[in-house]
Design a protein that fits this description.
- By secondary structure, the chain is α/β, with parallel strands linked by helices.
- Strand 4 and strand 5 form a beta hairpin.
- It has eleven helices and 14 strands.
- Bound molecules: adenosine-5'-triphosphate and magnesium ion (MG).
- Magnesium ion binds next to helix 1.
Length: 328
């Protein structure tokens, strides 16, 4: 339903989106991840016909965005970054106005506006001027405007940005609920959000795709995936070398005299061997934790400057250990 072919956008000498090709089908919820300035919003602006590409082609529901923009746009609901709105209108007035622009009239318009208000929980503020609404409510008006005409394609630029935790959860479940018969493309800086709502995750950096796969595959990329953190009581002698000697163990890192992190070879499951060794040696375990993988590490490795594209094989295993908060 969305086809991007060799899409490129240059601003003067700067290339914001670089030769991007992607195809997204009905039922897919595709998440764009990437650092600030990666080109996520620029890509979304081109998909929705808001910004013309420098080169390349975009087709949405079979309509070429360059030659048939109205037909393409009729199929799209778009929540732009920052959700620009008319501040002196009320949510109800704005939604009616957008509905009319979408060609809705009479009972169809009324039911579309009421439906969008209900789904975005705007009932209490429909008659309040938009400029007096809080940030999260403004964002929800933007979302209501995007889903108003029940479009086949939704392009949502950071849909949960600025929402409180309850509203984040509500918007995520709304996205999941709508996903069945639509194609949804969203961007986010919340790495866990991709797992919560997306069937497909892409990572962009410097205008290029660095990863395209499922959220589970993304997490698997972490060097911590299936590593085992083992905290023992006391400091049993020879524990590290015994762990290192287990079949399938790649390496063992001592976290303290009594705590170890055991890394598997080939991302295999190690828990049975580790617990068997502990009982054989009579070690008392205080705490055992199988790491599900860490998205922030994967993100950092995939997006660091000069990193190779996913297709050409990354060196993500050699990631540095420094901790840096990348989700917000
Ligand atoms: N109109 C413009 N003129 C010049 N440069 C632009 C323009 N629009 C975007 N850029 C540049 O293109 C790059 C990509 O911007 P874009 O907004 O697509 O990033 P993003 O991935 O959405 O980032 P963020 O996570 O901060 O929203 C940035 O370096 C930005 O400064
Ligand atoms: Mg952006």
């Amino acid at each position: 339903m969305i086809e991007l072919h060799a899409l490129t956008k240059r601003f003067g000498p700067f290339t914001a989106v670089d030769d991007l090709s992607l195809s997204v089908g009905r039922g897919e919820v595709l998440g764009f991840l990437g650092p600030n300035g990666a080109g996520k919003s620029t890509t979304m602006k081109m998909i929705t016909g808001f910004l013309p590409p420098t080169s390349g082609r975009i087709s949405v529901c079979g309509h070429d965005v360059a030659t048939a923009p109205r037909e393409a746009q009729a199929t799209i609901g778009y929540l732009p970054e920052g959700a620009p709105l008319y501040p002196d209108m009320t949510p109800a007035g704005l939604l009616r106005c957008c509905g009319e622009a979408r060609g809705l009239r009479g009972a169809a318009l009324k039911s579309a506006v009421e439906g969008a208000i209900e789904r975005t929980e705007l009932g209490g503020v429909t008659a309040q001027r938009i400029e007096t609404l809080s940030k999260g409510f403004k964002r929800r008006v933007g979302l209501a405007q995007a889903i108003l005409h029940d479009p086949d394609v939704l392009v949502l630029d950071e849909p949960t940005d600025g929402l409180d935790p309850n509203q984040k959860a509500q918007v995520r479940s709304l996205i999941r609920e709508m996903s069945g018969d639509k194609v949804i493309v969203l961007s986010t800086h919340i790495l866990e959000e991709v797992e919560a709502v997306c069937s497909r995750a892409t990572v962009m950096a410097e205008g290029r795709l660095r990863f395209d796969g499922t959220p589970a595959e993304l997490r698997r990329r972490s060097r911590f995936f299936r590593s085992i953190e083992l905290h023992l009581e006391g400091s049993p002698e020879g524990a590290q070398s015994a762990l290192e000697g287990l079949e399938g163990v790649a390496s063992v890192e001592a976290l303290s005299a009594s705590a170890f992190r055991v890394f598997p070879q080939d991302k295999r499951a190690l828990l049975p061997q580790v617990t068997a060794l502990a009982s054989e040696r009579g070690w008392s375990t205080e705490h055992v934790f199988v790491d599900p993988g860490r998205l922030d590490d994967v993100f950092r490795v995939l997006t660091r400057e000069g990193a190779q594209e996913e297709r050409s094989g990354t060196t993500f295993e050699q990631m540095s250990a420094d901790k840096q908060e990348v989700s917000r």
